[in-house]
Amino acid sequence: LMYKEIGNGNIKKHTVRDLSASLWWYSKASHAGSPLGSIYVGLMNHFGIGVPPNRYRASRYYQYALNQSNG
């Protein structure tokens, strides 16, 4: 997952997960032909990590990953 630092000036900085950036990069990797990228997008959709849960979309990405790995 991607992380970003928040805070400025005298406010203490801390790191938070940037789920939208993670999904963007995993989707980009998936569309570039990476089975691992497809699996991560599938998992995020399956478990609702950063997006509403959507098992249909998750299954499409899992199938896409399988097709990519056998390609």
How would you describe this structure to a colleague?
- By secondary structure, this protein is mostly helical.
- The chain has 3 helices and 2 strands; from the N terminus they run ββααα.
- The chain has a two-stranded antiparallel sheet.
- The chain is flat, with a radius of gyration of 15 Å.
Q: What are its keywords?
A:
11% strand, single chain, mainly alpha, 3 helices, 71 residues, 2 strands
Tally of helical segments? 3
Question: Biggest sheet: strands side by side, in what order?
Answer: 1-2
Order of helices and strands: EEHHH
Beta-strand residue percentage = 5-15%
Tell me the span between the first and last alpha carbons: 26 Å
Mean pLDDT: 85
Number of strands: 2
Poorly predicted parts: none
Structural class designation: mainly alpha
Shape: flat
Please describe the topology of this protein.
Layout: E1 3-6, E2 14-17, H1 19-31, H2 35-47, H3 55-69
Antiparallel strand pairs: 1-2
Helix pairs in contact: 1-2, 2-3
